Amino acid sequence: MDPNKPLRAPQPNPYFVLAAAIALPGMGHVLAGKAQRGLGFAFFTLVGAWLTAKFASPDVDVIGRHAAGVFVWALSIPDAYRIARLRAVMSSGSSLRSTRSTP
User: Fold this and answer.
1) What pTM, to 2 d.p., does this model score?
2) pLDDT at 98 over 70
């Protein structure tokens, strides 16, 4: 072990972060180490859901009644996974390889 190299905490599995982001809005970001960003997503999910519920027509279904909150939640899921994946790759020292082939 090199005494000059700083110790890093083990990064959570990106798939675990993805599952947490699907289960609760903002939780994936918290697990990935971006708590402020995760709390922001959770807050705006709640505010968006409340606003659309307040102004939606009474005959709209549950998803439509909370559409803005569901939209913000859906945006947070790939963002949390991307952050966790990048942190895992950077902590392992691997280089990012493109999956596209160059012509």
Assistant:
1) 0.78
2) no
